[in-house]
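Sample 3 of the quickstart, ligand S-adenosylmethionine:
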Amino acid sequence: MSAAVRADHTAAPGAVGGGSLPTGADKVVMVRSMFDAIAPRYDLVNRVMTFGLDNRWRRRTVRALGLPPGSTVLDVACGTGDLSRIAAKQGMRVVGLDLSFGMLRAAPSGPVLVEADALALPVADGAVDGVTCGFALRNVVDLPATLREMARVLRPGGRLALLEVDEPAGPLLRLGHRIWFERAVPMIGALLSDADAYRYLPRSVAYLPPPEKLRAVVRAAGFSTVGRRPFGGGAAQLLTATREAQR
Ligand SMILES: C[S@@+](CC[C@H](N)C(=O)[O-])C[C@H]1O[C@@H](n2cnc3c(N)ncnc32)[C@H](O)[C@@H]1O
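Result:
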């Protein structure tokens, strides 16, 4: 188990399987309780549904920061800490933060992980060299505000690397991906973990802006040189950016 630091709050359970997607405070409660519930088998399901590629993508995400060893990196929405541990292995000084204490508690030992909301990071302005965030943009209630908060804690010239799910561009790959993501993944999730949570996963993609809009939201938060590249034939995407000196 990791050195997880718990915040003071109470979370109520919420429905995740069907119906309209939650927003605002309902979404916070639902997301926290869903990740608390699936935490024990979260890593296993990730490995299965990405054919073991997810940690390769995380390694490339940390490398894409382009920061030297010893740099301070905040891993926002760290979950069970895969990205945090990979960044630490690459020589970074890492702290992970997540809304779900269940996810933090399920993490193997590694960097310090703290229960905190991405919308109110307990970190001083300009205090870190890099921010990573893996597969979590869909889960926050206010994406522009979350990105502004990441910009706030980064020093000018600091680096951002966001790993997210995506959909392949070509029609054939997209069809195969849809069958896998929308049919097979919920079945695998039901078998290994929680049916509702893994029905919610493909539906939650609707929260993500399309690529150009997403880049624009990153830029508007105070970043420049916003780059985007596909992973896994387009099943995932990496966005990188540099914190502007002036906003
Ligand atoms: C799909 S998991 C990704 C976890 C991890 N980054 C990874 O690469 O596996 C999404 C995570 O985002 C967290 N999360 C969602 N909203 C959050 C918020 N507002 N602040 C912090 N963490 C949040 C969830 O608790 C969950 O652990």
